[in-house]
Design a protein that fits this description.
Largest sheet: 5 strands, mixed
Strand order of the largest sheet: 5-6-1-7-8
Helix content: 25-40%
Radius of gyration: 25 Å
Shape: globular
Structural class: alpha+beta
Number of helices: 14
Number of strands: 12
Oligomer: single chain
Order of helices and strands: EHEEHEHEEHEHHEHHHHHEHEEHEH
Length: 424
């Protein structure tokens, strides 16, 4: 079989959140698992063996007894663990392929063009290496286009027993079988509404879409659908993306673990969220000139009074100094807080972001002092080495009582030295 000039792979972690929990709980290797959203609200992830019994998005308080009866173990979301495990998986992928694009926390596209030998065997090598070094199972789809690679990955998971978790459809005969046996709604980028329109046009399988007239699809739908059809037919239209440009806005918001009626804990929350937002700001090398701070009550309980308000803050100069940004953001809470309400959420939004040197103030405008750059550099170095929150501003509490409810959270096995995995 002659390999195409371009070959892509999609490496996708299987039931990623649940798999992260199982890495350090081998006793749950054959036990169904679900992971809950912030404040243990609803189901956001399920292990494969839990999917037949639990719907995605099911409210935890409604299914709590059913989970216990069925022997399904719930976990609060542990984003520190998931983020660290994701970085480990992506680092392994990047070390094994010429180029890679991190598509999401649990997915990465890889460029396999020019790699010699059997690509199915190479896919199995990627899979076994990731599992050996992290304990995370993955599926690998290999194809001449990104859309086909996504489809091959879907097939690898759907037919795991037969495929061993790796499917290569560079061969036209194998590709045709996958296209004929995949519903059009399973194709990457085909949503529910678009699926209904396509089925109304007798386009019911991925093969039907691959054989449809691309110009007609563009005219009736969009260029995105046209590219999808061309990719399914084997014509590459999507390349590996370049690194994302710096964000133009940075937002940090959370629901409180309980309703707040006093201003001080709300100020603590705003200071905490500003700490995280400023970390993201410095990580992309940006400065901020404006901040929007907002608070609101719960909006869905008919028995609670509703209130939402925000304030725009102009900083004295473009900055990434969390101390200055926190000072102005916390002061804004005084302007928007109203007593007598039960607040459920606060938000910090950094806007008017520029890269260093992009702000064009006049000669006499105030600038961030060099000492601020030095202090922020030390702050980030310490927190990167010893864990987020090791060093923080004075208004940020270590264990706030308004924090998210995560009573079922596992340990941060890989990011906190006091929670390392122990073997007895």
């Amino acid at each position: 079989m002659t390999k195409p000039d371009q070959v892509f792979a999609l490496i996708d972690c299987n039931s990623f959140y649940a798999s992260c929990e199982r890495v350090f709980r081998p006793d749950l290797a054959k036990t169904p698992i679900v992971v809950l959203s912030n404040n243990d609200g609803c189901v956001i992830a399920r292990s494969y063996d839990a999917k037949p019994y639990v719907k995605m998005g099911a409210p935890y308080f409604q299914i709590k007894d059913d989970l216990s009866r069925l022997g399904i173990v719930p976990f609060s979301s542990n984003y520190a663990l998931y983020g660290d495990m994701s970085e480990r998986v992506m680092s392994i992928i990047e070390s094994m392929v010429p180029a890679a694009e991190v598509y999401s926390i649990d997915e990465s596209f890889a460029d396999l063009s020019g790699i010699p030998g059997n690509l199915t065997q190479f896919g199995r090598q990627i899979r076994s290496t990731i599992f050996k070094r992290t304990g995370i199972p993955v599926g690998v789809g290999i194809a001449p286009t990104k859309t086909l690679a996504k489809l091959a990955n879907h097939t690898a998971k759907r037919l795991q027993a037969q495929t061993g978790g790796v499917v290569d459809i560079c061969d036209e005969f194998k590709r045709a079988w996958v296209l004929r046996n995949t519903e059009v709604g399973e194709v990457w980028g085909i949503g529910r509404r678009l699926n209904a329109h396509l089925e109304g046009m007798k386009i019911k399988t991925a093969m039907d879409l691959a054989m449809a007239d691309p110009s007609m699809l563009r005219q009736k739908f969009s260029i995105v659908v046209e590219k999808t059809a061309r990719e399914l037919a084997g014509t590459p239209c999507l390349e590996l993306d370049d690194p994302d440009p710096p964000k133009q806005e940075i937002c940090c918001s959370r629901m409180f673990g309980k309703r707040l009626t006093e201003i001080e804990p709300i100020k603590e929350a705003v200071a905490t969220y500003m700490m995280r937002a400023s970390e993201k700001l410095r990580a992309q090398g940006s400065l901020c000139k404006k901040i929007r701070v907002s608070i609101r009550t719960g909006m869905f309980n008919p028995e609670e009074a509703k209130y939402a308000q925000g304030a725009l803050v102009e900083l004295p100069y473009p900055t990434n100094d969390v101390r200055l940004m926190t000072k102005f953001a916390v002061a804004a809470v005084d302007r928007i807080f109203r007593p007598g309400f039960r607040y459920s959420k606060a938000e910090v939004l950094l806007i008017d972001l520029r890269q260093l040197g992009q702000f064009t103030d006049d000669l006499f405008a105030e600038h961030q002092p060099a000492t601020s750059d030095q202090v922020m550099g030390v702050l980030d170095q310490i927190n990167n080495r010893w864990g987020r929150g090791t060093l923080r501003t004075g208004g940020v509490p270590a264990a706030p009582d308004w924090g998210m409810q995560r009573s079922l959270m596992s340990q941060s096995y890989t990011t906190r030295i006091d929670q390392l995995w122990t073997v007895k």
